[in-house]
Amino acid sequence: MTLHAEIVLTARDVSVAVDVGDGETVALLGPNGAGKSSLLGAVAGLLRPDAGVVVLDGRVLVDDSTWVPPHARGVAMLAQDPLLFPHLTALHNVAFGPRSTGHGRAEATRRAREWLEALDVGHLADRRPAELSGGQAQRVALGRALAAEPRLLLLDEPMAALDVAVAPQLRQVLQTVLHDRTTVVVTHDPLDALLLADRVVVIEAGRVVESGPTREVLARPRSAFAARIAGLNLVSGRVVTGGVRTREGSVVAGVAAPGLAAGSDAVAVFSPAAVAVHRDPPGGSPRNVLPVRVTELEPRGELVRVRAGDLSADVTLSAAADLALVPGTPVLFVVKAREVALHPAGLRAD
């Protein structure tokens, strides 16, 4: 199944287009309020867009003159809240999926048992939702969605409400069941994107700002949000001789990607581990020196993540103490040019 969706929601200032290939999993990344869940809602039929088109495997679900109701789309959606029927057992909750698509009681029950077993909750078939843990309930909800044999599966942060000890188990289950199944998943977790998605689409302020293969986007991000979730620093500007000139006028030198043209928009990307923190200008080999002000200190085991607005550096505990770092301290972030990668800004070819 393939998906093509172009959605305009005027009141929410959302205008995005997404394509998903047959059997592909695409992760939608972006800050809260960016428009990710709105896109899913429009594809599922829970929101009616002001304009646009949704085509699932050649069948038009939405356009200027077409509106297919949610129950007739062949789309299943799983959100943070499992939304199980409280008066039904796990078995009957899952059986509701195939029953809703026209299967008889016996066949629906058979499929429900199969999915409960496949999701390792078969022993919970006779329990009601109040008797299930969060992870168990989410597996049952996933079983209900899959038992209906949807043409498209939508996952809206399915692990966001789970305990950190439970989420890895569900993530492992999803790795198995999403194989060759056309899926769109909304997540804030880079691990979800890496383990589950073939491609990622980054949405900010209601617009697609970056798209590409998952590992490429997270290794060499071109948008601020992708860099943030990948744990990398990103500075944007225009290409000049020697590097990227920022809006503030400083030039960040680095190793340029092939074909990076002078005057074009570009980003400089580098790891917090590559950044040294100084109080006074350093000497020695040529390097980038960025004046910043500490905004936050985050302990990370034997290291401290020093945040300065959108930039960050990792230093040892002893270095943080020697530098007397506290929020508000003016410092210099120093990074060698060979540790900085320069890439075109924005969208890339998939």
TrEMBL record:
Q: Which residues cross the membrane?
A: none
Q: Which GO terms describe its biological process?
A: molybdate ion transport
Q: Does the keyword Lipid biosynthesis apply?
A: no
Give the GO molecular function terms. ATP binding; ATP hydrolysis activity
What are the protein's UniProt keywords? ATP-binding, Molybdenum, Nucleotide-binding, Transport
List, for all copies, the residue spans of the domain called Mop: 283-344
- InterPro entries with a match to the protein in the record: AAA+_ATPase, ABC_SmlMolc_Importer, ABC_transporter-like_ATP-bd, ABC_transporter-like_CS, Mo/tungstate-bd_C_term_dom, Mop_domain, P-loop_NTPase, Transp-assoc_OB_typ1
Q: Which Pfam families match?
A: ABC_tran (PF00005), TOBE (PF03459)
Instruction: Specify the ABC transporter domain's residue ranges.
Output: 3-230
How is this protein named in the record?
ABC transporter, ATP-binding protein
